[in-house]
Amino acid sequence: MEDVKASCEDRMRKAVGALKDEYNGLRTGRASPALLDRIRVDYYGEKTPIPQVATVSVPEARLIVIQPWDRSQIAEIEKAIRTSELSLNPSNDGKVIRIAIPPLTEERRKELAKTAKNMAETSRVSIRNIRRDGIETLKKHKPDGSSEDDLKKAEEDLQKLTDAYIAQVNKVLEEKEKEILEV
Description:
Blueprint: H1 2-24, E1 40-43, E2 46-49, E3 54-60, E4 63-68, H2 74-82, E5 91-92, E6 97-100, H3 106-140, H4 148-181
Antiparallel strand pairs: 1-2, 3-4, 4-6, 5-6
Helix pairs in contact: 1-3, 1-4, 3-4
């Protein structure tokens, strides 16, 4: 029974981690190197994340500076950023690429907050599905000598685990909403 609980906990932890990764790709009004983590650039025939081909820094709250290790890749990196769904407009001076992050409109902030809520709900559903799978596994593979009370206790433990991870999702969502809605 403990191995089922440990397996469920591991999967729930990964669900929360996946939500945090998704949130890194959500553009807020503030510059963050994590914005570029999902953008892939054609680097000598391989699709490679920008942080693996350049130094990404944030010298100001609304500015991202990208310094490619290989200057011949500047045009390729710039193109990848322009064609991404982030709607960013990079400019380069031949050595570095600068991306000014424009402030978000109120309408766009509300849209992003709604998207963040949907992502969080997807994570909550995923966590509840993990709990359901765990309970089904417990019922299917009930160890010999275990009573109904043991099974009930294991189900309660899984529920407590689920509640704890859903609380984590809610906390992560709250922090992201605060970041999105701050002017």
